[in-house]
Design the sequence.
């Protein structure tokens, strides 16, 4: 056949270490119908500071693939919540082949058409808290590319008609497809009148949704006469692909006929009439490359030059009876918050002689990012003392209404579903499916009585069941120790839990590494009470008449205490304001404390009469910077360096003016300035290089103690004027005047010592 190649790519994204599903990068692709091969080219490269990160360490990258919905992954091997079904997915780990670049390839032969999702992440790290902008961070960028090759002009088989085909010696196979509408209980494919070789050397393979593979349902026509392949309970509203393959080493041309018979479950004794204008014609989509691009209608199909079609009626075995399917009413409350109401429900009656079938329709793409929840509650009083068990089978795209043991196991040869059961002992059953595949989900309820020989149909007992079905963003809203986050990747929305306080798992229910209540209380008290260290600096500031500085320290102590009381991950949390307000005030108070302390050390009041303008200017600039980026490095360094620059200029000017180092006393340097500077430097080093998520509560508490302690050392002493010597009158004619060196410039606490020790130029 003729192949067409399509190419898709996505923008590179930065990968993050895995902590929860909220930290992964999700990519969404769409594979067209009739695709025979899909190749993902997985490109990963390192960057550091805008250049290639050759010096970055090699970190493995895990990529997950799933069709229909995002992958439900568990790389940390945590426990899932109870009653949670975990769908499978493909996983691939990429290793580095070059210093700064690696490429992986993932091939899928005959992939299922529709939505495909890729999830990628880095391995979990130690959770180091780094200051933004302190150093160039290693970034790992991931870019997936998809190349698909699909067939065009695939021959379409029409139910009830025979298609004649000749397979030339150089051809190995012939591919067909047939559309299976709703309410089809059986698909029968048959190869007729095989000529050109002995014993019909052909393989017959059938697969739903995509071309058959080597492990698809197959039949060897040499060993089976007639060559018929039957599929019970086929998927509704999907294409079925039929592959007729020649055995290796068969010479010459092989001629045969292919026919497909669909059994309508509403008419079990008859095959579906050809070209009946029913659901078959109303719901059949246009074929990608079908003959003349026609849908099944009232007129017979055209005859192609290489094959002929004519109607034929084949006897069909009696199939399952078609039970009525009750629809559900969709009520959308919010994003991923949808309730499915049953007409004349929510209590439903399950008769003893037939199942009760319900359908839940999930919208494509929109509903696959949440959690499908199902709840069954049995009304025990309706059993009349009988040992009745109600089994529920939830299947995707086709209902399971078999009356044998399939109702108990919820599985057949070609179909598997999710099983729920309720009885008088366990009257409640729940099922949660994270990231469900979209389309139609069918719930079949059947009541069976337990006997010595197993489960058998009940007599004269109609069970009553309360049924609840709904779509939620997360499982139980992530519980007490998690937060349900709504995430977006391009135009696709999905929800995931972000756990805290050491809890893990898909619903934040795994307490293997959870923090105890005592540990949470201890960490909260350490972070809050460590701010009491600001009381001595406040007392020193008040005693030294630095009332503005004391007010700033009190502001910082208050908001830092209540910010950390509100910022705790566990249940020991106390918020007096909104979290964002407390965070802003805490950051502003911390930076303002540094600013006013350094400006006070500069001693600008005797030099600049309006030195208070700097305090107001600092408050306005810091507020603006914090509003732009609260975690940026220059928000802390910029104002601090600016204030230190002002202090350095003031001290240098005094040193030049006095011709003596300022501050002039060695005691001030040895017992105040140097210890304060060392304590502040140690605090900054702890904050920037040692703090992690695990040690945050005590390292950050030490940061509070060191910063407050450094302020007590660095704050200058009280400024006092001399009481013995007043201002000396200026001598006229000499051009010089004698100046009294003020006590605050000497850095002395005792004002009794005052001398005229310098001569200043007039």
Sequence:
């Amino acid at each position: 056949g003729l192949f067409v190649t399509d190419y898709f790519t996505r923008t590179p994204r930065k990968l993050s270490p895995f902590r929860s599903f909220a930290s992964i990068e999700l990519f969404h692709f769409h594979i067209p119908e009739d695709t025979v091969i899909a190749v993902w080219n997985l490109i990963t490269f390192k960057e550091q500071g805008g250049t290639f990160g050759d010096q970055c360490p090699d970190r493995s990258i895990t990529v997950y693939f799933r069709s229909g919905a995002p992958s439900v992954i568990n790389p940390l091997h945590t426990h899932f919540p109870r009653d949670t079904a975990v769908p499978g997915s493909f996983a691939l780990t990429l290793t580095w082949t070059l210093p700064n670049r690696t490429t992986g390839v993932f091939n899928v032969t005959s992939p299922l058409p529709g939505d495909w999702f890729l999830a990628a992440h880095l391995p979990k790290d130690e959770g180091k808290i780094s200051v933004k902008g302190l150093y160039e961070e290693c970034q790992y960028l991931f870019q997936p590319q998809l190349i698909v090759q699909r067939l065009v002009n695939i021959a379409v088989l029409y139910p009830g008609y025979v298609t004649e085909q000749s397979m030339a010696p150089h051809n190995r196979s012939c591919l067909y497809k047939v559309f299976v509408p709703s309410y089809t209980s059986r698909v029968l494919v048959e190869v007729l009148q095989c000529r050109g070789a002995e014993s019909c050397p052909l393989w017959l393979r059938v697969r739903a949704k995509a071309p058959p593979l080597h492990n698809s349902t197959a039949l060897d026509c040499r060993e089976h006469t007639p060559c018929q392949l039957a599929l019970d309970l086929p998927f509704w509203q999907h294409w079925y692909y039929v592959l007729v393959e020649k055995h290796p080493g068969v010479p010459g041309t092989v001629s045969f006929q292919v026919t497909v018979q669909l059994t309508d479950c509403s008419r079990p004794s008859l095959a579906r009439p050809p070209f009946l204008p029913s659901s078959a014609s109303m719901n059949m989509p246009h074929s990608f490359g079908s003959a003349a691009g026609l849908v099944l209608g009232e007129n017979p199909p055209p005859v192609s030059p290489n094959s002929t079609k004519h109607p034929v009626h084949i006897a069909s075995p009696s199939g399952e009876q078609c039970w009525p399917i009750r629809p559900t009413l969709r009520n959308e409350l919010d994003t991923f918050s949808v309730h499915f109401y049953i007409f004349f429900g929510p209590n439903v009656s399950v008769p003893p002689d037939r199942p009760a079938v319900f359908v839940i329709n999930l919208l494509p793409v929109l509903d696959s990012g949440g959690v499908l929840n199902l709840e069954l509650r049995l009304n025990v009083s309706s059993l009349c003392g009988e040992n009745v068990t109600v089994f529920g089978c939830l299947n995707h795209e086709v209902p399971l209404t078999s009356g044998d043991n399939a109702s108990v196991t919820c599985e057949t040869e070609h179909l598997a579903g999710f099983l729920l059961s309720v009885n008088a002992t366990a009257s409640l059953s729940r099922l949660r499916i994270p990231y469900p595949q979209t389309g139609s989900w069918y719930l079949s309820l059947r009541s069976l009585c337990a006997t010595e020989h197993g489960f058998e149909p009940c007599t004269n007992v109609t069970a009553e069941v309360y049924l609840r079905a709904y779509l939620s963003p997360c499982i139980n809203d992530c519980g007490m120790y998690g937060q349900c986050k709504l995430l977006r990747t391009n135009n696709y929305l999905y929800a995931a839990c972000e756990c805290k306080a050491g809890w893990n798992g898909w619903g934040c229910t795994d307490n293997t590494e959870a923090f105890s209540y005592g540990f949470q209380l201890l960490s909260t008290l350490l972070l809050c009470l460590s701010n009491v260290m600001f009381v001595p600096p406040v007392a020193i500031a008040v005693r030294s008449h630095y009332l503005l500085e004391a007010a700033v320290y009190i502001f910082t102590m208050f908001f830092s205490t209540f910010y950390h009381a509100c910022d705790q991950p566990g249940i020991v949390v106390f918020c007096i304001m909104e979290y964002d307000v407390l965070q802003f005030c805490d950051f502003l108070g911390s930076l303002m404390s540094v600013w006013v302390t350094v400006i006070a050390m500069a001693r600008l009041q005797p030099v600049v009469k309006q030195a208070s303008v700097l305090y107001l200017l600092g408050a306005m600039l810091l507020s603006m910077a914090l509003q732009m980026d609260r975690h940026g490095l220059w928000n802390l360094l910029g104002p601090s360096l600016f204030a230190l620059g002002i202090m350095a200029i003031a001290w240098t000017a005094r040193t030049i003016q006095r011709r003596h180092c300022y501050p002039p006393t060695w005691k001030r340097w040895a017992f105040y300035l140097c210890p304060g500077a060392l304590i502040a430097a140690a605090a900054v080093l702890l904050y920037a290089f040692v703090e992690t998520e695990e040690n945050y509560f005590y390292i950050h508490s030490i940061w509070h103690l060191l910063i407050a302690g450094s302020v007590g050392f660095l704050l200058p002493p009280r400024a006092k004027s001399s009481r013995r010597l007043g201002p000396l009158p200026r001598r006229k004619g000499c051009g010089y005047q004698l100046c009294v060196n003020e006590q605050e410039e000497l850095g002395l606490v005792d004002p009794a010592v005052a001398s005229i020790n310098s001569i200043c130029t007039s």
Q: What stands out?
A: The first helix runs from residue 279 to 282. DSSP finds eleven helices and 36 strands in the chain. The first strand starts at residue 2 and ends at 9.
